[in-house]
Amino acid sequence: MTDAPAPAARDYRDTVFLPKTDFPMKAGLAAKEPAILERWAKLGIYDRLREQRLGRERFILHDGPPYANGDIHMGHAMNKVLKDIIVRSQSLMGKDAPYVPGWDCHGLPIEWKVEEAYRAKKLNKDDVPVDQFRAECRAYAEKWVAVQKGEFERLGVMGDWADPYLTMKYDAEATIVGELLKFAESGQLYRGAKPVMWSPVEKTALAEAEVEYEDIVSTQIDVAFEIVDAPNAPELVGAHAVIWTTTPWTIPVNQALSYGAEIEYVCVLADDRYVVIAEHLLDSVRTRIGFDLWSENIKWRGKGSQLEGATARHPMHTLGGFFAKPRPFLPGSFVTTDAGTGLVHMAPDHGEDDFELCKQYGIDPVFAVDGAGMYRTDWAWLGGQGSVINKKFVAADGPICTDLRATGALLAASDDFKHSYPHSWRSKAKVIFRATPQWFIPMDAATSVGIQGASTSLSTNGVGDADSPTVGVEGTPTPGAIDAPTPFALSEVEGPGSSNGATLREIALDAIAATTWIPARSENRITSMVQGRPDWVISRQRAWGVPIALFVDRATGQYLNDPAVNARIVEAFRQNGADAWYADGHQALLGPDYDLADYEVVKDILDVWFDSGCTHVFTVEARYGEGTRANLYLEGSDQHRGWFQSSLLESCGTRGRAPYDAVLTHGFALDGQGRKMSKSLGNVVDPLKIIGESGADILRMWVASTDYFDDVKIGKEVLATASDSYRKLRNTFRYMLGALEGFDESERVAVSDMPELERYVLHRLGMIDTELRQAAEGYEFNRYTRLLTDFANEDLSAFFFDIRKDSLYCDAPGDVKRRAYRTVLDVLFHALVRYAAPVLCFTAEEVWQSRFPSEDSSVHYLEWPSLPSLDADDVVGAKWQEIRALRVAVTEAIEPLRREKTVRSSLEAEITVPSMLLDANALAEAFIVAKVTPGDAVTVTRTDFHKCGRCWRHLPEVTTDGELCNRCEEVVAHA
Question: How many contiguous H segments (helices) and E segments (strands) does the chain have?
């Protein structure tokens, strides 16, 4: 007879209260997010938020406009996500935080694309009527505004997408021209010819912000100018002054030579001639020129001041005319002995120092190089040839050097000089300095605009009055002939008039000092830029933009300064856009008091930086009231010389103050190896691809996790880290949703009745809440996100949830400890879902709707959490910090036994600890072990207690593995 089989151990799984939720572990964001966007659109979430926050303190982040040109790139994504996080966080803090997205719709980026289409069809843009070309540019911009709008919305960016600002809207164009006319009426506008950065490819002046520098290899030459007169050093007559340059194409426009007054020069024999160079540079010049026979006897030695009054002749003097004029020696403070020969050739058409020095001595530009970089057809040397940026044209064997070599003036020429050189960031072609007739806003002319003292509306609405003085134009070119040979006599004109007010530079520097700059170091950057910048060139020789709507008197060279005319211009733009300037209505704009035949109609358009510099007027002030300024501008660090500065100068010139209270700058998005992204390197990371594969919240998590005040990296490894952080936070929400299943107010426990652990977690939550708010207020979302994820991972998942899972699963539903735990979980849920909402806008909505489904609610309507008040729980906090430290030590002590399989889990361990901070049972629960006793140090042994078949704890009352402990027996009995 065999023994009867032992009865099978009972399975108690059906008696354990496991978390229940339909919230999926797998995010599937790429598929879910579009549906959430659609729901938000149906709710009208942005407009409803404006209604809910009406009357609250307003926070305005004014959007810097991207160009309506092509799909968005990672820089766009990073910028827009960061803005959205800030706007959502301000709304979370209870403020009315509108966000009006905008676009730059004028200018070269768009013209260039339209012209590319023309070139593909072998058409010339100049053969197309201007109104037709402008219409095509408008259509191109409209197309890309629509495309980018959808892409930005897909990122989760919430804003007034139904009514964004566009610089090409009629009201915007009217406002822009109105702001220009404010400068005109207040005397802060003049026309003059100064060397500006010019793109021969794009045939227009460029702003500094439109230029990037690249390393290139140029031709360097040494050229001899024969000295024909030297009253203070007659022995130099017949010797040759040697100059060195890396722009050979400027030699045909040379008009003078410059020396350093305190530099020591020598005249020495080189082969068959005497040459004059700086003594300090003798060896380097000898190496470069390659002459072996240098006389040991120096013919002459003297300071540069002895060259005063001397003249030389141009190497091409035999051509007569311009080239036959003597070239004077002029003292230049900018001349050094760092490189070259110590003598500098002066071409006032093509250098700032050259221009300013020559102007002092009555030497004016000659405008020999036209807009395409070609020498004028009537120019005696190389007329009609070029372009001057053509490498072959300026090479050592090119026509310039060939002609100089034929005269014997070329001492050295080589195509090997490496240096950094400016290029147009659009066409990537080299730019040149070129003196052309341009319109300028002066930086150092005294103005009538005081700090906070400027009017903000045009003409009869506040810009000047009928008695405003007119401002003389610095010389008047032949109407319509921008490249006329000699339209200006600059030496005879001193520019705009003056008053007793501060200068624009001074007002701007005061405004910078009154602005908060984030990070603080950026203040130094923009301060130095404004301190050293030249007058603002606001004119461009293009077609797609807001025209400089001025009439210039042909007889006096003064622009018409009549508030009534200006008001008609603004109104015409408001009705018909900037196209009104290209129609046949100029006489109507002038009115009956003036004859159009007496006036030149200015055809230049405004620099697009002036356009974008006015956005604060037709966006912030127009929507929120005159005098309102933005709380924050936020763009990449390159905008210190771009939008931040143009907005600053525009506002300071018309309002006497900055248009912003604070400015935040972020770095650039680089690839995973820290390299600049470029198609040629094949390292471009496409945000649209990331969204399509992983979802926008992963990209948002990456943005918020970066130290964006500096350049940041993005690649597979970086995104994997962001995805891992996201996954852990999502699982935290999933656990809380499951653990809170069925929770209602009847379960809630007062804080005073909670166990210490729950009070400690609430204490930690309060500390985190304070830090998170500080981080949000300081726009430190790297810190904000780290605080949030660390709290979720370390304080909750690895500690609080780990300890209390036994109570959640196994205690009776009515047990006070379990109820207290679920009460705290409810507090945590409401807090964490709010904290996460600005960063993970889609996931937070999904989490909220999972617990509180509703057709018309949204997590983004919520405000910053209101936490339970805690009375003097600092003591509890300090005590539990010690317990946590001891828990770490216990876990580390158990691990070797786990590896050796002496114990399979911490529940099988008995430990001793040097300090009993709680009673033995509470410590065992906190450490998730079988037993805790006092001892001299942390020690671990395997327990002899048996395992409860329901809660799996090893307890003394369990006599056989699989039997129930006292607690579980009671819970099962009353189930």
Answer: 29, 31
